[in-house]
What does this fold into?
Amino acid sequence: MNGHDHSLMVEAGTPAPTLRIALHPDGAQSRNLHIDVTGFTFDPEGVNGPHVPGKGHAHVYVDGVKVARAYGPWMQLQALPVGPHDIRVALYTNDHSQLVSNGEPIEATAQVVIE
It folds into this structure.
């Protein structure tokens, strides 16, 4: 464990940030993940600090397993195994609480098939 309690949730407020993701080919088994947010600023300098409304980072999951934190709008997902994969990105605060809107996590999903 990394010592962070990821079960904590923080209401994002109004207007809530929006989140969309897109996957772009980068070789046979890799994809570039674009994390498109509005009303939210990636804050790598603030990580592990106090919650600041509208700032934080994203968690990236492949097939339900957290593979990375994202501190900006682009990252590479390397060497994905052949087959279908579910990609999920969720927004988190600097103190590692999950951002929610009306109790629902602010997250986006996409599917990719590696042939």
Observations:
- Residues 57 and 71 are 5 Å apart (CA to CA).
- The chain has a mean pLDDT of 93.
- The two ends are 33 Å apart (CA to CA).
